[in-house]
């Protein structure tokens, strides 16, 4: 269904608005960001989604300029969204908006083709500035060491994920990894899932093989 211009806005003003779609697992975040954007007067939120799978469906059905997407979401997170959109010509530009404190995450988002990054601890004005930059055709990130982009597949791993990969190479079970790292087996499974996604592998054997290839390439 085609959306009509908001009351009091002419068709020309409507065309000038930056059209945005949102995806986040937290309904309070969705509501807050939607209110922030629409109160600003330069944006129109065309659709919202509670997970990445629904967001990708929105991207197929709606035309919008920028997507603001959470990183950790059920079914399909920010990483999977970026990977899916990389192969789509003229897809929307994506800003990752996340509460993650992972210092490597902005670099990973950039490597995956994201256009911008904003942490949820930043003031609301920062998110608005990032979306404006991205809508204008520019990238907006905190400092990223671009020398490390696209060379080492292990470069985007966190310290914990590197420890897990070393444990996998040593043949340790999930239970042993949990004991060694002082966490639960479910936490180990969660980190392994992220590890496999980052390396684009399906299981521990493929992860170990990629780690060995990467180390040989660095020698």
Q: How would you sum up this structure, described in words?
A:
The structure is a single chain. The protein has about 220 residues and is α/β, with parallel strands linked by helices. It has two domains: about 10-145, 3-Layer(aba) Sandwich (Rossmann fold), CATH 3.40.50.2300; about 160-215, Winged helix-like DNA-binding domain superfamily/Winged helix DNA-binding domain (Arc Repressor Mutant, subunit A, Orthogonal Bundle). The protein has ten helices and five strands, in the order H-E-H-E-H-E-H-E-H-E-H-H-H-H-H. The protein has helices at about 10-15, 25-40, 50-60, 80-85, 105-110, 125-135, 160-170, 175-180, 185-200, 205-219; strands at about 20-25, 45-50, 65-70, 95-100, 115-120. Strands 2-1-3-4-5 form a five-stranded parallel sheet, sandwiched between helices. Helix 5 links the parallel strand 4 (about 95-100) and strand 5 (about 115-120). Helix 3 runs parallel beside helix 4, helix 7 crosses helix 9 (about 185-200) and helix 7 (about 160-170) packs across helix 10. The longest helix has 15 residues, at about 185-200. The N and C termini lie far apart (about 55 Å).
């Amino acid at each position: 269904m085609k959306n009509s211009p908001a009351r009091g806005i002419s068709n020309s003003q409507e065309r000038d608005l930056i059209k945005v779609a949102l995806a986040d697992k937290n309904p309070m975040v969705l509501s807050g960001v939607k209110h922030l954007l629409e109160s600003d007067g330069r944006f129109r939120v065309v659709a919202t989604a509670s997970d990445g799978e629904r967001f990708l469906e929105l991207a197929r059905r709606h035309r919008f300029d920028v997507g603001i997407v959470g990183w950790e979401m059920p079914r399909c997170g920010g990483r999977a969204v970026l990977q899916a959109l990389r192969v789509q010509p003229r897809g929307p530009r994506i800003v990752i908006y996340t509460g993650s404190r992972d210092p490597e995450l902005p670099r990973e988002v950039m490597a995956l083709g994201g256009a911008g990054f904003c942490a949820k601890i930043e003031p609301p004005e920062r998110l608005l500035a990032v979306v404006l930059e991205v809508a204008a055709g520019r990238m907006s990130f905190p400092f990223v060491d671009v020398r490390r982009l696209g060379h080492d597949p292990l470069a985007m791993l966190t310290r914990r994920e590197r420890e897990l990969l070393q444990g996998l190479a040593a043949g340790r079970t999930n239970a042993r990894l949990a004991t060694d790292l002082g966490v639960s087996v479910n936490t180990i499974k969660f980190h392994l899932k992220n590890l496999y996604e980052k390396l684009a592998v399906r299981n521990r054997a493929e992860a170990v093989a990629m780690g060995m290839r990467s180390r040989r390439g660095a020698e």
